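can u do me a favor
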C-alpha cells in the first residue's frame, strides 16, 4: 500500500519514533493449542487446553513433557506455567511471604523430527537451563527441521498446568511479562479468569496470540524489584513488553513518605528495560476499599506513575486505582486484593488499554480505495489533518488513553482534528468497512 504522509519535520520525527518504539508488534502465532501432548506419565492434552489453575502435570526428577507441534516453523517460543502462586521465592522475595513452591530447576529443551510419542525417535538438545527458580518462563528455541519439542526435567518438583509453543519464524515480539506484587499473583495465578489477557486480544485481533509470563510475587515493593532487576531480566528479558503492577506495598498505609524512593526505583526499571529493548508499561496501582482497609493510596503515588509515563514516553497503562476505588465489590475481604471478579477486570483493563497498540498494526484497505494522502495544513498555529481518498471516508480520533475525541465522515477530502490540542493521536479511518489506523503528532 502506497500511503503518502506529509507532516512538519518535528512531528514526522516524533511520529516515527513513536511508531518504532510503541506500535511495532509482530505476531507470533500460537501453534500448540489442542495439539498432541505426551509426558513421562502418559498423555496430557490438558496441558494445551488454555485452562489455567485446573488439571496439572506433577513434576518429578527425570520427568518430561513433549508437544507435537508439526513441521514448518524455524524458530519457536516454548512457554511453560506452573500452578504455584508466587513467581519466585528467591528473586525479590520478602521473607514473610515465602511459600516453599516447587519449580523445574534443571532441564533441557529438546527437539525431534521423527518421534511419535515423545519417548521414541532421535532428540537434539537445543537449550540447557540450570538452577531455575521461577514458576513461569519462556525460551526462544531453534526449531528448524523438527516437529516435536520437549522439556526434559532432570531436577525439579511442582505442577505444570499449561505449556505453549509459538511460531517465531517471522521474529514475532508479542511477548508479555506481568511482574508485580500479590495483586498480580491473585490476578494470574490465584483466581485466573476463563478469559485472560491473551484471549481478549485474540478475540478482537485474531491474527495475534500474545505470550503471557505470569510474574507476581507477594509482599514486594519497588525496592525489591529494582534491587533484583538483573534476575528479572535474566528470566524474562526475552519478553518484549513488561506490564508492570507495582506500588501497593510502597504506598501501604496511605502516606507519601516513600514516594520519591518509589519513583526512583521505577525509573531504574524503566531505564534498564529500554536498554534491553523492552517496552515497560506502568499500571496505576490498585485503589483500596477504604472502608475495609482503613487507608487509601496517596495521590502522590499516582502522580509519580503518570509523570514517569510522560517523561519516558511510555505507553499509558490501565488505571486500576479509579476502577477498584469505585468498584469495591471486586476486592477481597481485606479491601486491597482483587477477588475472582477483580482478577478478570484487571486482565480486561490491560487488554482494553493495549488494543490500540494492536489496532495500529492493522491495515488492509483495498488498493483502489486506500487513503491517498495524510497531511497537516500549512497554518503553523493550527495544524489540522486532511484525509483524502476516492470514496466516502469514516473516521474516529482517539488519544493514547483510548478516549474518543472526534468522529465523522465525508467524501473525497475530510478535515480532521481542527479542535484537537497538541499531542499524539490515533486516527482510525474506514473505507467500505476496511480499516486503516494512522498515527499522528499534532503541534
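np, heres the sequence
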Amino acid at each position: 500500500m502506497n500511503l503518502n504522509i506529509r507532516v512538519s519535520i518535528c512531528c514526522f520525527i516524533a511520529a516515527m519514533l513513536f511508531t518504532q518504539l510503541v506500535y511495532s508488534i509482530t505476531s507470533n502465532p500460537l501453534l500448540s493449542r489442542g495439539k498432541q501432548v505426551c509426558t513421562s506419565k502418559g498423555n496430557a492434552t490438558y496441558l494445551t487446553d488454555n485452562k489455567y489453575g485446573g488439571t496439572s502435570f506433577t513434576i518429578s526428577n527425570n520427568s518430561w513433557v513433549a508437544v507435537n507441534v508439526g513441521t514448518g516453523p524455524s524458530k519457536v517460543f516454548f512457554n511453560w506455567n506452573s500452578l504455584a502462586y508466587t513467581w519466585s521465592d528467591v528473586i525479590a522475595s520478602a521473607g514473610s511471604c515465602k511459600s516453599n513452591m516447587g519449580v523445574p530447576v534443571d532441564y533441557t529443551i529438546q527437539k525431534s523430527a521423527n518421534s511419535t510419542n515423545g519417548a521414541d525417535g532421535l532428540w537434539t538438545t537445543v537449550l540447557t537451563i540450570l538452577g531455575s527458580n521461577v514458576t513461569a518462563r519462556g525460551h526462544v528455541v531453534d526449531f528448524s527441521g523438527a516437529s516435536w519439542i520437549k522439556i526434559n526435567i532432570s531436577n525439579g518438583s511442582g505442577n505444570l498446568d499449561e505449556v505453549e509453543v509459538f511460531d517465531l519464524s517471522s521474529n514475532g515480539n508479542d511477548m508479555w511479562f506481568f511482574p508485580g506484587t500479590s495483586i498480580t499473583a491473585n490476578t494470574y495465578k490465584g483466581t485466573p479468569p476463563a478469559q485472560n489477557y491473551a484471549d481478549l486480544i485474540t478475540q478482537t485481533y485474531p491474527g495475534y496470540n500474545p505470550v503471557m509470563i505470569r510474574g507476581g510475587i507477594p509482599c514486594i515493593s519497588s525496592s525489591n524489584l529494582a534491587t533484583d532487576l538483573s534476575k528479572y531480566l535474566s528470566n524474562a528479558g526475552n519478553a518484549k513488553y513488561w506490564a508492570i503492577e507495582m506500588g501497593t506495598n510502597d504506598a501501604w498505609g496511605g502516606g507519601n513518605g516513600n514516594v520519591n524512593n518509589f519513583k526512583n526505583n521505577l525509573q531504574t526499571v524503566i531505564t534498564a528495560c529500554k536498554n534491553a529493548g523492552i517496552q515497560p508499561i506502568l499500571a496505576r496501582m490498585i485503589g483500596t476499599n477504604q472502608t475495609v482497609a482503613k487507608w487509601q493510596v496517596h495521590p502522590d503515588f499516582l502522580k509519580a506513575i503518570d509523570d514517569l509515563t510522560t517523561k519516558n514516553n511510555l505507553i499509558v497503562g490501565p488505571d486500576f486505582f479509579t476502577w477498584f476505588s469505585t468498584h469495591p465489590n471486586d476486592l477481597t475481604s481485606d479491601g486491597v486484593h482483587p477477588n475472582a471478579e477483580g482478577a478478570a477486570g484487571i486482565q480486561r483493563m490491560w487488554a482494553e488499554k493495549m488494543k490500540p497498540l494492536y489496532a495500529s498494526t492493522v491495515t488492509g484497505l483495498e488498493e483502489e480505495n486506500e487513503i491517498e494522502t495524510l497531511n497537516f495544513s500549512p497554518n503553523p498555529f493550527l495544524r489540522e489533518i486532511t484525509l483524502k481518498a476516492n470514496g466516502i471516508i469514516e473516521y474516529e480520533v482517539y488519544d493514547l488513553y483510548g478516549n474518543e475525541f472526534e468522529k465523522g465522515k465525508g467524501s473525497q477530502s475530510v478535515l480532521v482534528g481542527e479542535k484537537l490540542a497538541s499531542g499524539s493521536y490515533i486516527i482510525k479511518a474506514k473505507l467500505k468497512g476496511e480499516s486503516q489506523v494512522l498515527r499522528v503528532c499534532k503541534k
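Confidence is low (pLDDT under 50) at residues 1-23, 362-383. hope that helps!!
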